[in-house]
Amino acid sequence: MADQLLIDLFQAYYDARANKRNSTNALEFEINYEQNIFQLYRELKSGTYQIGRSVAFIVFKPVQREIIASPFRDRIIHHLLFNYINPIFEPLFINDSYSCRRGRGTTYGIKRMAHFIRSSSNNYQKNFFILKLDLAGYFMSINHQQLYDRIVGRLLKEKNNCSFDLNLILELLRKIIFNNYTHNCIVRGGRDSWRGLPANKSLFFNPPGIGLPIGNLTSQLFSNIYLNSFDHFAKRVLRLKYYGRYVDDFVIISVDKERLKLFISQARDYLSGLGLKLHPKKIYLQSGRKGVDFLGAIIRPRRIYVRHRTKSSFYRFVTEVNGIFKNKEINKPILYKILAGINSYLGLLAQHQTYYLRRKILTAKLNSVFWKFFRLAGGKGKYRKVILKKMFVGLYLGQ
Questions:
Q1: How far is residue 132 from each of residues 107, 108, 246, 262, measured CA to CA in Å?
Q2: 133 has which bridge partners?
Q3: Phi, psi of 321 (to 5 degrees)
Q4: What is the residue extent of each domain of the chain?
Q5: pLDDT at 394 exceeding the cut of 60
Q6: Superfamily for 52-303?
Q7: Whole-number Å distance between alpha carbons of 113 and 218
Q8: Which tens digits make up the pLDDT trace of 329-360?
Q9: CA dist., res. 296 & res. 104, Å (int)
Q10: Which spans of this chain does the record mark as coiled coil (predicted)?
Q11: pLDDT of residue 30
Q12: What is the rounded CA–CA span in Å between residue 114 and residue 20?
């Protein structure tokens, strides 16, 4: 009978591959994936597994950010860890934490905010106020020791309910949390890309023991765990019924403006104990009639709009896609990258009343070469998803 760890490693591989299958790193691993997974298994069993070299680069959309990406084999370990410990922490999270949670993502968060507005205003009959807060450099400010202690403390309490090797997971947590991801990492795009990025938004300038890399699945889970006690402080202790959070963005709705003002100082005091600070230039307290910009949407009484930046970003992406078909040799990774990008935007827009916008972009903005490779899912008039034409599915196309 196969070792459960080996079975779980294969599942973690399939999970990691689902999102990164067409990256060069993933394709290299996939060539001999069984052999590579068995090698990972042996390293975990013998205690010799070591984290590989990360790749550091800068993205500029929607804003300039530092990304430090782990190699694919390490991403498999991230999924393994996530699959083991997320079920333990998920029941501890409040309903209104919307990041990296199945069934409680951005669509759920937008609906909840619309519900909060209706409920707090007695179906728009009463005046109400919206407070929006943001953290300054959240991922770069997370304290490794505090994070590790919070996770380990809960796992030790649940040790009788753990279906995995607890000692192995504790060791993986120690390696992943305390790893120096900037040491010996591969820098892509040149150091000039970092020009203009504040020091508090880069791991390269962080003191030891502080900060997590943006982009890793484990960092997303850890960020939820780190702020979970604050979520409960707001919801349970201060009884802020209409409170929601997405990563480092908080929105609180109330008919009592003074109570919201008081919460700013209460939040500042609590967060200081976690080594976190409110962004001084991103504190908004305004009439609820103006709505709130949250989760890619403008949520107002009786209406939800797509944020202008989202529409502009989609137009820019389409322009880039048209340029790719004009200037580049097309291969399978490029096609799947385009497919993922187009459908990501369509999925976001389809949550709102954007039929004519989606039709306009798909029929009038994409050039004819695009439609040689793709078609609309569900036939004409269904502007929610595009798929690769059958003749190109599985085709080599010069990988």
A1: 19, 18, 11, 13
A2: 250
A3: -60, -45
A4: 52-303, 307-392
A5: no
A6: RNA-directed RNA polymerase lambda-3 (3.90.1850.10)
A7: 27
A8: 777 778 888 888 888 888 888 878 788 889 89
A9: 15
A10: none
A11: 84
A12: 34
Q: Is pLDDT larger for residue 274 or for residue 64? A: 274
- Tokens found for residue 138: 């959240």
CA-based radius of gyration for the chain? 23
Judged against a pLDDT cut of 50, whether residue 398 lies above it is answered with no
End-to-end, the C-alpha distance of the chain in Å comes to 37
Asked if residue 379 has pLDDT above 50, the reply is: yes
CA 119 to chain centre: 29
pLDDT in tens, 122-177: 888 889 999 999 999 999 999 999 999 999 999 999 998 888 999 999 999 999 99
> Which ranges in the chain belong to alpha helices (H)?
4-20, 24-31, 33-46, 72-89, 106-120, 138-141, 144-157, 166-178, 217-232, 257-272, 308-327, 332-349, 355-360, 370-373
Residue with tokens 């340029």: 323
Neighbours of 378 (CB within 10 A): 11
- Who wins on pLDDT, 366 or 382? 366
Let me know: does 389 contact 380? Beta carbons within 8 Å: no
CA-based angle 223:177:37, to the nearest 5?
Answer: 105
Question: 10 Å Cβ neighbour count for 8?
Answer: 17
How far are the Cα atoms of 42, 301, 302, 329 from residue 125, in angstroms, in the given order?
Answer: 64, 11, 12, 59
Tell me if 58 sits within 8 A of 64, measured CB to CB.
Answer: yes
CA atoms within 13 A on the CB side of 328: 16
